[in-house]
Automatic annotation (TrEMBL):
GO terms for molecular function: monooxygenase activity. InterPro entries: MOase_MmoB_DmpM (IPR003454), mOase_MmoB_DmpM_sf (IPR036889). Belongs to the TmoD/XamoD family. Keywords: Monooxygenase, Oxidoreductase. Gene3D superfamilies: Monooxygenase component MmoB/DmpM. This is Monooxygenase.
Length: 108
């Protein structure tokens, strides 16, 4: 994929008000997706499986909490463990020790 195609693909969600991560496929990615579904019960969490990666799309805003991931993994978890599988994301990102939030900056 060219740099232009990658930038276009990453930006596609914004034109539709969709936000969320693009995760490298694997066990942790599956756990993060399930945690996002649990942490956003009123949102439609869409996952596009491209084999090598999972594109998660949620309208407007979504959050994934450390506590939910720990519950699913049954072990302690630090949010920085997401970084190696986070290939890209749509929207803005807010990362703390307790959660990662993807959202649209409505001020623009």
């Amino acid at each position: 994929m060219t740099a232009t195609a990658a930038a276009t693909a990453a930006g596609e969600g914004l034109s539709n008000n969709l936000v969320g991560p693009v995760l490298r496929a694997g066990e942790l990615a599956e756990v993060v997706v399930e945690a996002m579904r649990r942490d956003n019960p009123d949102a439609e969490v869409n996952v596009i499986d491209k084999r090598a990666y999972l594109r998660v799309q949620v309208l407007g805003e979504c959050i994934v909490r450390r506590a939910t991931i720990e519950e699913l993994l049954r072990r302690p978890f630090i949010m920085q463990e997401i970084e190696p599988i986070l290939a890209s994301f749509a929207g803005q990102i807010e990362a703390t020790e307790r959660y990662v939030r993807f959202f649209l900056d409505q001020r623009r």
